[in-house]
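Exercise 7. Given the components listed, write out the predicted structure of the assembled complex. Treat all entries as one system.
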Amino acid sequence: MTNTHVPDDIAAFLYLEARYADESRYDDWESLWADDAIYWLPTKDDSDPSVDVSYIYDNRSRIHSRLAQLKTGRRYSQSPPSKMRRMLSNLEVLGEQGDDVNIGANFVLYEHRNGTHVWAGRYLYTVRRTADGLQLVKKTALLVNNEDAIRTVAFII
Amino acid sequence: MTAQMDRASSIDIASLIQHDRIHGSLYTDPAIFDLEMTALFENAWVFVGHDSEIPEKGDYLTRRIGRQPVIVARGKDEVVRVLLNRCTHRANMLCRADSGNAALFRCPYHGWTYANDGRLQGVPFREGYDQEMAEMRSELGMAQAHQVEIYGGFIFANLYGNAGSFDDYIGRAKGPIDRLLSLSPEGRIELRGGWMKHRSAANWKIVNESQVDGYHPLFTHESVYKAIMPAKVDYASDELLVATRDLGGGHNEVDYSREYQAQDAEFIWFKRTPREKMAKYVAAMEAAVGADETHKRFVDGPPHTFIWPNLFLAEMHVIMVEPVAANESIQYTAPIHIAGGEEINARILRNAEGAMGPAGFLIADDGEMGERNQAGLAAKQPEWALLSRGFSSEVQEDKGLTSYDRTSETTQRAMWVHYKELMTEDQA
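Answer.
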């Protein structure tokens, strides 16, 4: 049987990432990312980002821009920021290449802003082991309703 | 007759729309919304899709005209039809997918089948029907829009056939479509990246109005200009040569071309991307139309034009607005693929994600303004929303009623003048 057990340090890293996102701690969240980052919210599960439009397809530089905009306080769709809590579960190692580990998890996110909204789906992460500790290389959020119309998602999903 | 319809017939729409103000109930009243679906969608020309979304025989996609579900299908005869998405037997919805390819639509309830041109093909156990049914069988094909017209690849439908001629409808909106296609060395665009779909708690007309609002960028989008990049033109300048224009028929635009021409700079509209980064595209354009004409087109850029009632040529994106209820709408956004565009298309795709849709640096905040607009309308005083800005600055030109004050509400007034005409036709 394949070993899908997620090492404790990686699980702790992903819970930290989730808490920074929940609490809109933009600088702390940004510090988790590697230089070759991809933060991705596709419009369907089997999306090809070279052809298909995504809701979010941020490289490292665009992650920085996104957070810089949020930090102006005039990003009106997040002013004030959403109050959020998300649950991660079913964490599994899906594969490894060198220092990079691929993890899958299910999530449910409660977002309160102009009413309470539920976002749910699957996260796919790539986490890298480096001399300076763990880094987030890629985070993909596959919403269960990504092919339907979705509400504004200006917070960190 | 329901109470709502009863009330609707007694609403005096004309009195709610004045030349410089409109009544708040036009955004909130469910009875008015019902009237709009009939007058502005079912009995009018509306945009339903782009022919590049259904390039092959049998390709189809599902859309709505107002609230009615339709299938836009390319038959095996290559003809594009707009079919009502309903089995003629007992009204099951025939097709639930967003898009696909099918030779037949088969109703899963009792197995009736229809060819992809809408003709009834098969009825299981047909001996169970009497002679009367056999005689009416040819009339039991799927209902379809009376007229479908395609211009520049954009597919428009006239559902009930009451909307007058297509040429009268499209009017001066052909120019902006041509302007968009002129950015392709092949004279074509495609939509091949799919759509972002953004749901918001705002009336569909609020979404439309914000798309062509030249007054809001400095304020709504302050965070972008502050934190990410300067605006493409200096919205704070008194010298800005950006026009707002009523093209007639509800169509309207914000036209940046004179400002771009004054600067004589290419791709101001495309993050000032230098030619060198899109060398193949530039070469293809010059081969197709010559160096001078290529320069002119790269300066003038794409249209920022709203085509009544639900299509917005959003520069390098196409937007479609779908009304859901008086207080809910969906804004669909597709990046444009320029045929023969090579390098530019990859950039358009990534720009779409940066600026547009529910997470976009621009549109997420426009969505927020739309929802705040709807929320504010719950306050019933004052009763009117003002649309008087720039009224006296308008001049009649060949292209339409134009104001060279970019903050003029000429664009919004263009929609309401036409709205009033269509909504009061039967009341006159």
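Discussion: Chain B has a mean pLDDT of 95. The first helix of chain B runs from residue 3 to 9.
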